[in-house]
Specification:
heterodimer; A: mainly alpha; MetI-like fold; 2 domains; three-stranded mixed sheet; 14 helices; 68% helix; elongated; B: mainly alpha; 16 helices; 79% helix; 0% strand; globular
């Protein structure tokens, strides 16, 4: 009984407030409820932390460029910056530690034509190991790895958002339309989805990337279209089918709602939670594709994590292993963690969207 | 069943034509036409260009060009490579095809066989340290950025430990006086693997009828051992053995790398599929009537858990092919994927388009096989068709 009176009282109270405040409060309440469900899965929270960390990096880059690195663009720019870190090396006959010693021949190459044993020569090195000036060292061309990493985070977010949004918007519309109308429209859209599923995506993108100049936006939209008309459309259609048979659609039709009204107001809002979930998985896929394509050097993007891996691989530093760890690990780990973060969020959101998976 | 396969074949044929149509559009959506790439030289008179265009059929209407293109691809008349000039494209691609097939088949089969078994056992041993370890390992392998993982494998096993070669699929020093070409040995290896697979299948098919589990297992082990001994004896006697061994040695690292990633995916999928199946009523019934646990696991649960796994195979073909390209590029494995990548960087359009058509065909055939397999496993589909 008390519950009922409470809601009644709240209802009376509510009338004094403006509508948007009520909406905000309802939104906040449903957010809190969903967050409670979401945070049951520790992996999901880990995912949020990872994505938050990369978001911080992406925001940090322009800030650093405008403050701490201001006027030093020639050094810290992720694409055109270059810095040669100076290291002192001793000339010896027998080189035991190449990072502090050099042979006579090497000394002569640096321009010191009459080297003597024990002479100390300053040489610029690239890639340079991490130091106070470059937190993660420099790449084979002397560019700052940390700066590249942060810039890459921004590129990854841009691509992920474009690809996921376009894919999910397309897939939601296609799935809802196919489920609602059925018939030839359904057959057409679903056969098309089957065909796209069959396409070998990576080889196709490799050829497309070689024929045209593909940047972040183009790639994002391309992935969005291919995925939104393909796999995601099939999954969202099955959700839309289960929404279509709910009685509220009949009620809306009896009340005089047209087809478009029912799709936009009743079917799509009920498919949206699942769409939102698939956006997370979409980001993972898009990032992998982008990084693979830029690893092959087929995209016209100034800098991304894939290009960082490509640079150290083609320059032959990946086989150095731990001796050049700042070339081998940051970029690869970044791609992996970023994709894993969105994947984990998706898995945890699955629990929110799909009540069957909840632990009670 | 025959009707089902026939229908599928027809569908696949249609799909391949659609795929070729997409390729033709890609080719034609490029700025300019192929003759401009061929003779970009301003010294060549316009008449020569016209003659060339006429010879290549570029002066005909687009629709006839399209028909011509489809006919040419179907008759394997793919033109000549720009990069390796007089060599026909089909020759280059046919040379690379067995190598890709080898990588694709071994990786797929291995990852499915081992992954399914692991997933099955892990689902059975819930909440044990083994399960947690396998799960964490699989999730890491599943989410790792594949090219980076391949580079790490190459660095660790190839460079740091020095266990495996750093790339390529043979050691030229051992081959310079070889009486065989690499592809002859390769095809022999593929053929023997195929024979072995058929024999293993036959063993399972014939021992299927033995009802008692103990003698069935004994018969299976005996026959499988016979097949294995037969293979070993064949390769011991064969004069190709040392060359085959060289190729096999070069194969280990790329195949393991490609397998590991897909193995992880299959393990995760089988586990969740098994857990879903274990909640079914027939498992409960089987338990109630006192069927041994192992039989419930293998015959009641795993058999039904196999269906979603097979479906996922159909969806993962594109991913395996993509992974294959990355593997070929990092381990310099001269298959279709590396041919495609090299052609793309060298702007060798005929080879690139041909390789894409080949890869599409490969994907379709794999899809067809998976479909047939699915129908064999799921009686409902057979009966419906």
């Amino acid at each position: 009984m008390t519950d009922v009176r409470d809601t009644d009282m709240m209802g009376a109270e509510v009338l004094d407030e403006s509508l948007w405040k009520i909406r905000m409060r309802l939104l906040w309440r449903s957010f809190k409820r969903n967050w409670a469900l979401f945070s049951q899965s520790k992996m999901g929270v880990v995912g949020v932390v990872i994505v938050g960390f990369f978001g911080f990096l992406a925001i940090l880059h322009p800030i650093l460029m405008a403050t701490a690195w201001k006027g030093q663009e020639a050094i810290y720019d992720p694409v055109i910056g270059a810095d040669s870190v100076i290291v002192e090396k001793t000339v010896v006959t027998e080189v035991t530690d190449p990072s502090t010693e050099m042979s006579f021949t090497e000394a002569m190459i640096t321009g010191e034509f009459f080297p003597e044993e024990g002479m100390i020569i300053e040489v610029p090195i690239a890639p340079a190991p991490p130091n106070a000036k470059h937190l993660l060292g420099t790449d084979p061309f002397g560019r700052d790895i940390f700066s590249q990493l942060m810039f890459g985070a921004r590129a990854a977010f841009i691509l992920g958002v474009i690809a996921a949004t376009s894919a999910v918007v397309l897939a939601t519309v296609v799935g809802s339309v196919a489920a609602y109308y059925g018939g030839w429209m359904d057959t057409w859209l679903m056969r098309q989805a089957d065909l796209i599923l069959l396409l070998p995506l990576l080889p196709l993108l490799i050829v497309i990337g070689s024929f045209w100049e593909i940047g972040l936006w183009q790639l994002g939209i391309l992935i969005g279209i291919l995925s939104g008309l393909g796999a995601t459309a099939i999954i969202l259609k099955s959700q839309a089918l289960s929404v279509k048979v709910k009685p509220f659609n009949d009620a809306a039709r009896v009340a005089g709602g047209g087809n478009r009204h029912i799709i936009v107001r009743h079917i799509i809002p009920n498919v949206l939670p699942l769409s939102f979930l698939f956006m997370m998985f979409e980001v993972t896929g898009a990032i992998f594709l982008e990084a693979t394509l830029s690893f092959f050097g087929l995209l016209s993007i100034p800098m991304s994590w894939g290009i960082m891996i490509n640079t150290s691989h083609t320059q032959g530093y990946t086989l150095f292993g731990l001796r050049a760890w700042w070339l081998l690990f940051p970029a690869g780990l970044a791609v992996t963690l970023f994709a894993a973060g969105f994947f984990l969020i998706g898995r945890a959101m699955d629990v929110v969207v799909n009540p069957r998976l909840r632990t009670r | 069943m025959v009707r089902f396969i026939g229908k599928r074949l027809l569908q696949m044929g249609l799909l391949f034509i659609v795929f070729l149509t997409i390729l033709f559009f890609l080719l034609n959506a490029q700025p300019g036409d192929i003759s401009q790439q061929f003779v970009g030289n301003p010294d060549i008179p316009p008449e020569a260009k016209e003659i060339l265009r006429a010879r290549l059929g570029l002066d005909q209407p687009l629709f006839f060009q399209y028909l011509n293109y489809v006919k040419n691809v179907l008759t394997l008349n793919l033109g000549q490579s720009f990069d390796h000039f007089p060599r026909p494209v089909s020759e280059i691609l046919l040379q690379a095809l067995p190598r890709t097939l080898y990588l694709f088949l071994t990786a797929t089969l291995l990852s499915y066989l081992v992954g399914f078994q692991t997933g099955k056992l892990v689902a059975w041993k819930r909440d044990t340290p083994i399960e947690r370890f396998t799960m964490v390992g699989s999730i890491i392998l599943y989410t790792v950025f594949y090219p980076w993982f391949a580079i790490l494998m190459l660095w660790f096993f190839g460079s740091k430990l020095g266990l495996f070669p750093l790339g390529k699929f043979l050691d030229p020093e051992k081959w310079f006086d070889s009486p065989y070409t690499a592809n002859q040995v390769f095809n022999m290896m593929l053929l023997s693997a195929l024979v072995a697979a058929i024999l293993v299948g036959a063993v399972y098919w014939f021992t299927h009828k033995i009802v008692e589990p103990k003698p069935r297992q004994r018969a299976r082990r005996l026959l499988l051992a016979l097949v294995a001994i037969g293979m070993v004896v064949f390769w011991m006697v064969s004069p190709m053995s040392q060359y085959a061994a060289d190729i096999a040695y070069h194969t280990i690292l790329p195949v393991t790398t490609l397998t590991l990633v897909f193995y992880a995916a299959i393990t995760l999928l089988t586990r969740s599929s098994m857990l879903e199946t274990l909640r079914e009523d027939y498992i409960f019934t089987a338990r109630a009537k006192g069927v041994p646990e192992k039989v419930i696991r293998d015959r009641h649960a795993a058999r039904n858990a196999l269906l979603p796994v097979t479906t996922s195979f159909v969806l993962s073909i594109a991913a395996v092919i993509g992974g294959g390209i990355v593997t070929e590029s990092i381990f310099s494995w001269p298959g279709l994927g590396l041919t495609l990548l090299n052609a793309v960087t060298a702007e060798d359009i005929p080879v690139a388009m041909g390789a894409l058509a080949f890869i599409g065909f490969l994907a379709l055939v794999a899809h067809l096989i998976a479909d047939i397999l699915y129908a064999v496993l799921d009686p409902r589909i057979r009966v419906e068709s």
